[in-house]
Amino acid sequence: MVYVKTLLRRADNFMYIVKKNAGARKAFLVDLVNEENYQELAEHENLDITAVLTTHHHYDHCGGNEGFRRQFPNVPIFGGDERVPAMDHPLKHNQEIEIADLKIRSFSTPCHTSGHICYFVSDPSNESEPPVLFTGDTLFIAGCGRFFEGTAPQMDTALNKILKVLPEETLVYPGHEYTVANLKFAAHVEPQNPDVAAKLKWAQEQREKGLFTVPSTIFDEKATNPFMRVVESEEVQKTVETNDPIEGMAKLREMKNNF
């Protein structure tokens, strides 16, 4: 099973260590939040770091790239935007690569930023195990990123035409710990949804214990994420006063911005 270790950086940013399994040495990192000693991290975690994957160019997701490059001058840094510091391996939509004995497919999901990439990771030697998805600031648990460089149609495409159709067991790892706030908004939008109420209670309990709320799954997001439920939920449609997915997406984002 694909092994993911979640590391908290800053107040709510996630960086991830990804390996084929818990005992593997070969690994890659997702979203280097801070300047830090990555050689020390590799030694502490017993890693051979073979690549860095960056979701987008915002500093809280790539602030460590240039320092990493100085420490590991020959390790590739992947991304989808020329603004990503130290990136030397640009990726396009649906491009497949293999790193650390894992298969990675890049999904172009422009909106939060114009060059945002999500990464779909699977173990080619064990296709029965659930794949994992690193979504940066496109898909959060029960939410989505702000439309800084894009539009509602772009976010609808990203969430509901690209990510929503992935296998339901796919494990979702976003860029931030925003789950409780997002589920409170989801409960406001769809107050009769029992899945939202149950997950909000669980998420609050996790945070009270000092635990993370990642990963989610595509199955859970389809059941609880209002940005993925405009078409399915009459209650969401009533809240946003439309059953049009694009109009609904735009209204939900405006509501969330002011929630």
From TrEMBL:
Residues 12-176 form the Metallo-beta-lactamase domain. It catalyses: an S-(2-hydroxyacyl)glutathione + H2O = a 2-hydroxy carboxylate + glutathione + H(+). SMART domains: Lactamase_B. It is an enzyme of class 3 (hydrolase). It comes from the Eukaryota. GO terms for molecular function: hydroxyacylglutathione hydrolase activity; metal ion binding. Keywords: Hydrolase, Metal-binding, Zinc. This is hydroxyacylglutathione hydrolase. CDD domains: hydroxyacylglutathione_hydrolase_MBL-fold. It comes from Caenorhabditis nigoni. Its cofactor is Zn(2+). One of its GO terms (biological process) is methylglyoxal catabolic process to D-lactate via S-lactoyl-glutathione. Belongs to the metallo-beta-lactamase superfamily. Glyoxalase II family. Its EC number is 3.1.2.6. NCBIfam families: GSH_gloB. SUPFAM superfamilies: Metallo-hydrolase/oxidoreductase (SSF56281). Pathway: Secondary metabolite metabolism; methylglyoxal degradation; (R)-lactate from methylglyoxal: step 2/2.
